[in-house]
Amino acid sequence: TSFSTPKKKKRDDGMREHVTGCARSEGYYKIDKKDKLKYLNNSRAFAEEPPADTQVRTCPLLAARRRSEQRRLLSSFTGSCDSDLLKFNQLKFRKKKLKFCKSHIHDWGLFAMEPIAADEMVIEYVGQNIRQVIADMREKRYEDEGIGSSYMFRVDHDTIIDATKCGNFARFINHSCNPNCYAKVITVESQKKIVIYSKQHINVNEEITYDYKFPIEDVKIPCLCGSENCRGTLN
User: Fold this and answer.
1) Residue 197 phi, psi (nearest 5)
2) Which residue numbers delimit the SET domain (predicted)?
3) CA 105, CA 222: separation in Å to the nearest integer?
């Protein structure tokens, strides 16, 4: 075992010449920096330029996945147009700048802190989804607790959104007989949502209002919106 290892030589093409005929039998030997740089540069260039057949295989797969995702999102919107999907995504990731403060109509109100163009989503009406039976029970309980206003918004015949104790700034929007916004029910991923749209251009510091559209009842609720065509009552 104590024989001297033969000196390793290089061939004319730069490759290491193995005297014993097997690279494993000669053990580890250091690579020159010049040879290492050549190898690294060649491997980087190869990595930056993938084979053409790989590009042909991956691009259609990515495009098919995008189309499938787009179809899934569009199909989740039942009874609404494609623009609702785009606007709801904009509302989710880019919320309007709004504030609530004292209103000349009634108590608190919601005001715009930036210009809002016509036919734009302003804010979603957020709260707890409850049934009609629960809504009747809560309304009586709120009266017993001394809560003057209950913020309930009907979605359909069976569902009501209660934002009295769990909601966002949308519950502060006051009624007006000549409103600058309107409410619309849209469906997102099989769930109905109420979104407030702008009817017209809304200036900075202008109060956001919509028509409550209360059902006609014998006991009237006075309207204090002060518009020219005010009906006098909310119901």
Assistant:
1) -105, 155
2) 96-213
3) 11
pLDDT string in tens for the chain (235-residue length): 565 655 555 555 556 676 777 767 776 667 777 777 776 776 665 555 555 554 444 466 677 777 667 666 655 554 445 566 666 666 666 678 999 898 888 888 999 999 999 888 899 899 889 998 998 898 888 888 877 667 888 888 888 998 888 888 898 999 999 999 999 888 877 788 899 999 999 999 999 999 988 888 788 888 888 888 888 888 7
Angle between helices 52-75 and 82-93 (to 10 degrees): 100
Q: Which of 53, 222, 231, 91 is nearest to 168 (CA)?
A: 91
In a domain, 120, yes or no: yes
Residues 6+ apart with CB under 8 A from 190: 76, 78
Give domain status of residue 115, yes or no: yes
